[in-house]
Amino acid sequence: MPRIDLTVAAGLFLFSIGLWPQEPCPDARAWTGKYTNHSYGFAITIPDHLEGFWNSFACVGGPDGCVCMTDHGRIIPLSSKRGEAEPYIEAYGGFAADLDEPTVSREMDKRLGWIRERSRGRIQVRSRSAITLAGLEAERAVVRYYDKKLKSWFIEDFIEALQGGVEYSLCVRTRDTSYGRDRLVFEAVVQSFVLTDE
């Protein structure tokens, strides 16, 4: 009779009762390099010196693995500090909020409305223009605003695009004094954005 290694036997036992170490849930780890969103069919490249993190509701781990809501994309912090006031880039995909007849302009107006609400009217739209993102008609806006809660001036440079009821949004949010530097990183993410067949 062949001898079974004790380590293998212990591993089989742990696996059989559901205690075998599993991969961490996707919201519990950092992502680097190419990130592909299988839920909404897009991909970006996270710049070499940065990490991307889950930007959807938290997953719940259990004996059968992770239970997660839909994966909408990644947030890429631009500083080592973590918090609401820190700069970040976000790549997002999801069903458009306006279910009747979503348009890029309506999505842009909604985003601007959220910024106006956060700033209580202290907002300057520096630019707003039609662009193309991965072959899609899109709009891009650069907005400077005073965040009343954080008591600081910020810039949001964001792009909205639609395809078949799916909204794609790319954004950098940073303090106005850091925008020149952070915009370069954002441009690299924008240039890497592609639609996938998934």
Secondary-structure blueprint of this entry?
Blueprint: H1 6-16, E1 33-37, E2 42-46, E3 53-54, E4 60-62, E5 65-67, E6 73-77, E7 88-95, H2 104-119, E8 123-133, E9 136-147, E10 152-163, E11 166-175, H3 179-192, E12 194-195
Antiparallel strand pairs: 1-2, 2-12, 3-6, 4-5, 6-7, 7-11, 8-9, 9-10, 10-11
Can you walk me through this structure?
The protein has 198 residues and is an alpha+beta fold. It has a single domain (25-195), classed as Mog1/PsbP, alpha/beta/alpha sandwich (Protein Transport Mog1p, Chain A). Helices cover 21% and strands 39% of the residues. The chain contains three helices and twelve strands. It has a seven-stranded antiparallel β-sheet with strand order 3-6-7-11-10-9-8, sandwiched between helices. A hairpin with a 2-residue loop joins strand 8 (123-133) and strand 9 (136-147). The longest helix has 16 residues, at 104-119. It starts with 5 loop residues before the first helix and ends with a strand.
